[in-house]
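Fig. S4 source data, part A: sequence.
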Amino acid sequence: MPNRPSWKRIKVHRSYTVDEAARTLGVCKATVRRWIKAKGLPLIDESRPALILGPDLIAFGKSQKRPKQKCDLDQAYCLSCRAPKNAALGRMEIIQANMKTANVRMHCETCTTRMHKRFAWRDLTQISVRVHVSASQAHRHLIELNAPCLNAHFKKEE
């Protein structure tokens, strides 16, 4: 079963039993019963089978959605804190870029979890006023290393 109910499957001009609502939303029947008892999902009446109107179910689904959290230009969403957070020490690093966008990496100021964000190059001047932006150095190739490895693993013992 999915983590979140699929509220778009509910029809407006239909009434649902607990079992039908559970199957339509992709949740278990006990979850729908818990919504009725604890969270106040309205029923048509208290008789069996318990019927839920489609518009009531849609309105309940809309009330259960969390509001979206917007990040500022110098912020990224921290998955550990579950909130938009600023970069630790006011630093972010450009790790990959193309002609229009760049990917940046920064650490959360609260829990130091690594966060990633993509931004457009046109926003770089606004971001650089708030945060120190640096570019990561390209990885070195093996041929550019100072000294080659001298281990001879393929010599036969005599």
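Fig. S4 source data, part B ends here. The beta strands are 15-17, 51-53, 75-78, 83-86, 91-97, 101-107, 114-120, 132-135.
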